[in-house]
Amino acid sequence: MIMESDHELAARLAEVAGQIAVQVRDSGLIDGKPLGSAGDKTANAFLMKAIAAQRPDDGVLSEESRDTLERLDKERVWIIDPVDGTREYGEKRSDWAVHVGLAIGGKPVIGAVALPGVPTVMRTDRIADLPPAPEKLRMVVSRTRPGKDSEAVAEAIGAELVPMGSAGAKAMSIIRGEADIYLHSGGQYEWDNCAPAAVAIAHGLHASRIDGSPMLYNRPDVSLPDLLICRKEHADTVLKLVAEMG
Question: Which pTM value belongs to this model?
């Protein structure tokens, strides 16, 4: 039996987990706030069992599972978010995602971001051509709580704000030609951005912390509060403005 590549596995895991979450939501058997939790937990149960079956020697970090520091001894760690954007998921919007990332040596090397509401799966081994940037740049921000840093940078460079849901949807919007800059400083965790960062980097985008340092994963503290994903030609300008704003 030929083992599928990590790229293929990440994409299949993300796609199937998204399908499971959609089935839970569309069953009509759960409503209100429990819906998001049910979708998260059901998709997570699948992902955890599938990764254990397919890559038993790897570590796993999931938003929906109790963390164990055994993963710190692993070179390869799958970092997953079964439903990123539970609000959007429950509202049947398209801007929610499933994140399946693989950090190797702490770096976001392999990943897939499923957008079940589109539907599509963005992945590290199938590279799409980036559409040209428009004259007036677009900065994607949270649709419920846009950050002050993002708004200030957008004003400074004359960019249009584009409200959107999950972190994965925001990051993928750069590749999909829906936005040009994703700047976030309001707090995230490793599962929020590992897969999106891996896919962005594979597509030739800039992905870093807002101080310009690299995105590093599988740390004891899983908080990874800020990031910048954008076209490389815009990175220096944005990083300089963030630094000047303190």
Answer: 0.94
